[in-house]
Amino acid sequence: xxxxxxxxxxxxxxIRHKLAIIRxxxxxxxxxxxxxKELAMLMAYESFKDIPTQExxxxxxxxxxxxxxxxxxxxxxxxxxxxxxxxxxxxxxxFPAAKIGHIGLCRNEETLEPEEYYCKLPTNIEEKVVMVIDxxxxxxxxxxxxxxxxKKRGCxxxxxxxxxxxxxxxxxxxxxxxxxxxxISTLDRCLNEHGYILPGLGDAGDxxxxxx
Length: 212
Ligand code: PRP
Ligand code: URA
Hints:
By secondary structure, the protein is α/β, with parallel strands linked by helices.
């Protein structure tokens, strides 16, 4: 597959180990949920590398020193409902001050096109770095819709964090949104005829929420 400058595969033994667990069909809801959160945390660590910082003065027990912190009000995370919710706590574990928006999209199982059912975003989102989070990047339709919704509201610095991606989805997002940095933990083989990622992990939303 063609490589794209804006697509980063976060290959690491810890990530591979956790992926093996969530791919297993016998992994139960609790463990699945816990590991989605842990993977989100690892992905946040890497994808936060270039977010805005500011200098502050800190008084240690010995003296005053200049230190670097993440710029106030500079980051929003936007989970795509519903599976994206499973990643929120992992990102917040590293950066609890992030504002949170929600975009509700559900793939029509026949057309595979995403349908929007909810959108509530933090005020001044256009001034923030926006991390769109969704464990699965399949056809790329949901991610592109979410990115388009954010761009329409003026967002200029958008990142996408998806745990498992199909080549089809990566191509669609990377080519339609070359300005969006895409972070994935693994690039899987392909989609099946129902738009599921192979080998994948099945339906992420159902496995996080135990609905099937
Ligand atoms: C899943 C997943 C993504 C989308 C990916 O959600 O969480 O949002 O499919 O597929 P795409 O790249 O082909 O658009 P789904 O629509 O199943 O909704 P859910 O999270 O409510 O289960
Ligand atoms: N959505 C999922 O939850 N899983 C897939 O494999 C594809 C889309």
